[in-house]
């Protein structure tokens, strides 16, 4: 079982690699907030995700990135176009959900579900597009039409070619067990987002229930924003941020590769005539 922390720029990607993670996640909510200053309510497009992913994947190196593909940003051909843009940006996998486009954040009321057959066709189109991406099918049915419909949809999406299924909102042991019983050979994805209730089930138990990926989409972002808030408050109050924990400057320059850049600059500096 693999934990995927949220990353959203080259430096957070580098920190995730240094922490030893085997994979990372790029959240649509994080990109919408940081790129547009807007909530996760359909303002974002796949081009925004692909643009951020193109800056993140080089910093991740061989660590694969799973990216939020929302609803595919339209119908099946639109979803295929999105998948191809993601693959070109170096993304390793995406998760595609079955809300009506434009969608609402998965933790808000008022969600509308796409017809299950149409959603399965969209999954099939992306799975057959030849991009090489891992396709995670997400259903938001659990909080709209209940567990039975969520399981039925997950089965449809698995048959359509999904590599894993993500039943959004299911975190409890009993409901996870029901999903796993219905799809015993299908890897499951769970979401540990601060936007919703988090059931911190032990990793060993999750693994027994078929969970292979645990997403932490915004925890690093919220931690960074809290740290920035504290720094701004300290500067406003005291004229300096001396009391606020900060990354040492040498660690920062190490993350951005300053020593390597200076060495490269020196290596190719023009020769000065004697």
What does this structure look like?
This is Carboxyvinyl-carboxyphosphonate phosphorylmutase. One of its GO terms (molecular function) is oxo-acid-lyase activity. By secondary structure, this protein is α/β, with parallel strands linked by helices. It has two domains: 2-218, Alpha-Beta Barrel (TIM Barrel), CATH 3.20.20; 224-267, no CATH class. The protein is 45% helix and 13% strand. Strands 1-8-7-6-5-4-3-2 form an eight-stranded parallel beta sheet. Helix 5 runs parallel beside helix 6. The radius of gyration is 21 Å and the shape is globular. The mean pLDDT is 94.
Q: Can you tell me the CATH architecture of the largest domain?
A: Alpha-Beta Barrel
Sheet with the most strands, sense and barrel status = 8 strands, parallel
Low-confidence stretches: none
Secondary-structure element pattern, one letter each:
EHEHHEHEHEHEHEHEHHH
CATH superfamily of the largest domain: Phosphoenolpyruvate-binding domains
Distance between the amino and carboxyl termini: 62 Å
How much of the residues is beta strand, in percent?
Answer: 5-15%
Major beta sheet, strand line-up:
1-8-7-6-5-4-3-2
Separate helix tally: 11
Average residue pLDDT: 94
CATH C-level label of the largest domain = Alpha Beta
Gross morphology is globular
Q: How many whole angstroms does the radius of gyration measure? A: 21 Å
Helix content: 40-55%
Number of DSSP strand runs = 8
Within the CATH hierarchy, at the fold level, what is the topology of the largest domain?
TIM Barrel
Please tell me the total number of domains: 2
């Amino acid at each position: 079982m693999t934990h995927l922390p949220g990353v959203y720029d080259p430096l957070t990607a580098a920190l995730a690699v240094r922490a030893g993670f085997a994979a990372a996640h790029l959240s649509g909510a994080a990109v919408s907030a940081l790129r547009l200053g807007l909530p996760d309510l359909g303002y974002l497009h796949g081009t925004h995700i692909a643009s951020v992913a193109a800056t993140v994947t080089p910093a991740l190196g061989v660590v694969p990135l799973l990216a939020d593909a929302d609803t595919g940003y339209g119908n099946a051909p639109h979803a295929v176009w999105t998948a191809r843009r993601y693959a070109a940006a170096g993304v390793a996998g995406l998760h595609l959900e079955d809300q009506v486009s434009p969608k609402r954040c998965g933790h808000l009321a008022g969600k509308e579900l796409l017809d299950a057959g149409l959603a399965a066709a969209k999954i099939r189109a992306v799975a057959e597009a030849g991009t090489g991406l891992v396709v995670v099918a997400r259903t938001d049915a659990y909080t709209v039409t209940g567990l039975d419909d969520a399981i039925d949809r997950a089965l449809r999406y698995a048959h359509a070619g999904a590599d894993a299924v993500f039943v959004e909102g299911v975190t409890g042991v009993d409901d996870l067990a029901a999903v796993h019983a219905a799809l015993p050979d299908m890897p499951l994805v769970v979401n540990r987002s601060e936007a919703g209730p988090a059931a911190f089930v032990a990793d060993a138990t999750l693994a027994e229930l078929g969970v292979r990926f645990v997403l932490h989409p915004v925890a690093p972002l919220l931690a960074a924003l809290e740290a920035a808030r504290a720094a701004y408050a300290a500067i406003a109050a005291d004229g300096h941020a001396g009391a606020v924990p900060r990354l040492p400057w040498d660690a920062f320059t190490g993350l951005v590769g300053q020593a390597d850049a200076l060495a490269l600059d020196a290596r190719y500096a023009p020769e000065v005539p004697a």
